[in-house]
Design brief:
The chain is α+β, with helices and mostly antiparallel strands and about 160 residues long. It has one domain: Small Protein B, Chain: A (Beta Barrel). The chain contains four helices and seven strands, in the order βαβαβββαββα. The protein has a seven-stranded antiparallel β-sheet with strand order 1-6-7-2-5-4-3.
């Protein structure tokens, strides 16, 4: 039996960080461009990237993406890129300053939620996030299960 395809949030997504929604309470989202090498773009077009343990940080007034895994592109054997190198995110200076202020003010972190292509350009959606407590995670799972049960009951009632 074949493996099921990876779940993606939107049709144009290359990678999504589904654990971010479980670990963090996502407050504010921002779309950023990315500075990539040619082999990284080709590897992204193949649809193979991981954002699981990645994070974004502001360094010297610039926004950087760390620990995002973009695997080497197969046909470019010799001139490949490092899979987990830091990548610069392109955002407006005022947006970066606003992120820095909120981050220091409330003790928040910046987490990438998805990678996708918008036209010919690779984009990264980042979110300002607050870490969830263990209780909050359990509460979210209970709510998700109750929603699923209600949908199942409605579907069964419509069936008969």
């Amino acid at each position: 039996m074949a493996k099921p395809a990876k779940k993606k949030v939107a049709p144009g997504d290359v990678a999504t960080n589904r654990t971010a929604g479980h670990r963090y309470e996502l407050l504010d989202r921002l779309e950023c461009g990315m500075v990539l090498l040619g082999t990284e773009v080709k590897a992204l077009r193949d649809g193979s990237a991981q954002l699981k343990d990645s994070y974004a940080r502001v360094e010297n007034g610039e926004l950087w993406l760390h620990n995002a895994h973009i695997p080497p592109y197969g046909p470019a054997a010799r001139d490949n890129h490092e899979p987990e190198r830091p990548r610069k995110l392109l955002a407006n200076r005022r947006e970066i300053q606003r992120l820095v202020e909120k981050q220091h003010e409330k003790g928040l972190t910046i987490v990438p939620t998805r990678l996708y292509f918008k036209g010919p350009h690779a984009k990264c959606e980042i979110a300002l996030a607050r870490g969830k407590d263990r209780f909050d995670k359990r509460q979210a799972l209970k709510e998700k299960d109750s929603q699923r049960e209600m949908q199942r009951a409605v579907r069964d009632a419509e069936r008969y």
